[in-house]
Amino acid sequence: MGSDCGVWFGKYVLCIFNFLFFILGTIVLGTGIWLAVDKSSLIALLKMVESEHINEFTQPQVIEQMAYVLIAIGGIMFLMSFLGYCGAIRESRCLLSTYGVFMILLLVAEIVTVGLAAFYKETARNESKTFLQSTITKFYSSSEHTDAVTLMWNQMMTTFHCCGVVDYRDFEQSPAWLTSKGNRTIPEACCRLKDMKNLIPEDEFCVTNPTETNSFFKKGCYEAFTDWIITHREVIIGVLAGVGIVHLLAIFLAFCLCKSFAKYHGMRL
């Protein structure tokens, strides 16, 4: 096998690819575990930074949810890349086969998810809107008492020039917003802004008396994000195609190396 350049090249391409993901997965998993077991240290660390925008990420419940997401993503990345790297470097057909099967299952799950979303388009749209609305209902508050979810929504609304999921009335479902809004009708992020960083509206009466001239209070972010996807569909399709090609290449290399290793070890016997 030492003289088989193709097998040697495939082996080390798979090794390098999975080693990089192994390092990334380890970092993501470690960060998630750290946040899950020791939220207070992160909160204390962030509060040492003299930045109101960084210190907005200090709500324990949001940190805990973020930790679980990171653990899930990091765990999958860690396991998959570990199997691929060790299988290739040790020339283990068992590990490579397991890696290849898991990659196929992951690819099938992705295809099925996209297919179901396309087939049940209306249901997927409604479920997406329900999920987004739940983030507003459970977490959104005023910009003076912001947390990570509020900051995310403010960033989304200022970027896409929109307000809420469907429109400004979505915020009326948030107890935290109703408690802290005062005489405001909409959040500052729904207004046309002259200072996006500090959420300062062009019209000082925008938050209390919104119109289509001084705000985006009737334009929902779901519609705005859908329009953005349609506008950038070529780029998105290109990125998805690139990810799919890399995924297929990893599966192809795994099973080709399995066959080559089997032949090589058989000849050596």
Number of helices: 9
Largest sheet: 2 strands, antiparallel
As a percent range, the share of strand residues is under 5%
**DSSP summary, beta strand count:** 2
End-to-end distance, in Å?
Answer: 13 Å
State the secondary-structure class. mainly alpha
Instruction: Name the helicity range.
Output: 55-70%
Give the ordered list of helices and strands: HHHHHHHEEHH
**Inertia-based shape:** elongated
* Spatial order of strands in the largest sheet: 1-2
Mean pLDDT, all residues: 82
Radius of gyration (Å): 24 Å
Low-confidence runs: 50-57
Secondary-structure map:
Blueprint: H1 5-37, H2 39-47, H3 60-89, H4 93-119, H5 121-139, H6 148-160, H7 175-180, E1 193-195, E2 200-201, H8 221-231, H9 233-268
Antiparallel strand pairs: 1-2
Helix pairs in contact: 1-2, 1-3, 1-9, 3-4, 4-5, 4-9
Tell me what the structure shows.
The protein has a two-stranded antiparallel ribbon with strand order 1-2. It is mainly α and 269 residues long. Residues 50-57 have low confidence and may be disordered. The chain has nine helices and two strands; from the N terminus they run αααααααββαα.
Short synopsis of the structure:
This protein is 68% helix and 2% strand. By secondary structure, the protein is an all-alpha fold. A hairpin with a 4-residue loop joins β1 (193-195) and β2 (200-201).
Keywords:
269 residues, two-stranded antiparallel ribbon, 9 helices
